[in-house]
Design a protein that fits this description.
Layout (H helix, E strand, L loop, with lengths): L1 H7 L5 H17 L1 H5 L5 H19 L9 H12 L4 H6 L3 E7 L2 E6 L2 E7 L4 H13 L11 E5 L5 E5 L8 E5 L8 H6 L5 H12 L4 E5 L5 H9 L8 E5 L12 E5 L13 H8 L6 E4 L5 H11 L7 E5 L3 H15 L5 H11 L2 E9 L5 E12 L11 E3 L1
Parallel strand pairs: 7-11, 7-12, 8-9, 8-10, 10-11
Antiparallel strand pairs: 1-2, 1-6, 2-3, 4-5, 5-6, 12-13, 13-14
Helix pairs in contact: 2-4, 11-12, 12-13, 12-14, 13-14
Length: 394
Amino acid sequence: MLKDRLYNQNKLTEDDEREIMSLVKKRIKKDELFVNSNFLNREEFRGKLYILLKDEIEKKYPCSDFNVEKNLINKMISEIFGLGILEDFLQDKLVTDIFIQDNEMIIIRNGIKEYLGKTFNSLDDVYLIIDRIKSNTGKTVDQRIPFMNTELYDGSRCSIVIPPISDKVYISIRVFNCIDFNLEDLLKLNMFDKKHHGILKDLVNKRNNILIAGSMGSGKTTLLNTLAKLISRNEFINIIQDVPEIKLKEHPFVRMLCTRTKSRESDNEINQDRLVFETLRMKADRIILGEVRDSMAAYQMLQALNVGHRGSFSTIHADSAIDSLLRLETLAMEYKTNISNYVVKKMISRAIDAVLFLDCEKDENFNIYNRKLREILLLDNNLNEGGDYKLEYL
């Protein structure tokens, strides 16, 4: 009779769910790559959880037809990561940032800051979330090391700072929500006009090396991801990044490489420099460097682009197109202190064909309501007589 009752219902009881989740957690614990894989996006991660849950349900009730509901997957994620209320915002496609200040929370949804007030009952609840984040990364944050930078299970970037170096507990999360646009979508969103739409397509088709500059949140990764979709399907593309935000799902010849920080004594740090070095051995037609953020990577990127990898892309934080070149110079010269400014400028002019500068349009409350392509700067391969760049603004 109990068997008939179970098989005739289409929903698991709470006891059933707890047992199934316990079995799935044991399987995940044995799979070191399940949580730490750099190459899963949120939907792929949830898809893997769905398969595990479905498998355990079918083992327990082989003749049943139970559904794996979204709510069960959410419970499973909460069981693994303990992120609680954060999960709702991580799934919201309009949310780009989450900020926690002690037990208060602020989010940025669709470019607008929303103060949610005291979201947590106590500071202990916040520290519980920090403990769960730590447990899945192998990293440490405590009074001895009061800050931590890591990634959440879905690729979202997380920064944690705690007292005594701060007055409050601060958790900043950049949500991994790179929306899957094409170039026409960005045109409709007024990121650029029809003239610039044509110029952007030409830059990619003519295999120009493109540097995309802008501030945080200006849309650099979104534009890069969109332009990369225009690359011919018969080309090998190597993507080097810290977090796997750039994904060309429809392209058959994409090789993704991700950096790795040293989180345990047994780990070896793998930085951008090493990945650029390795990618030169992989016969890539184009190289995409997610972000130029340190001196070593800047110099290695210039070296790589000067040996024939035409049509490559990268991003950099800067306040204008010309400032991005100055920052690239500074980074390269920090790495090679014995190199002259003239030689670095020569390398940059040979390596970079175009700089695209993006800016955020904000209202009086500093909410972002649009991202705009402000400048398209072309560089000549040769310097002028004064040893400076030959530039053309489009």
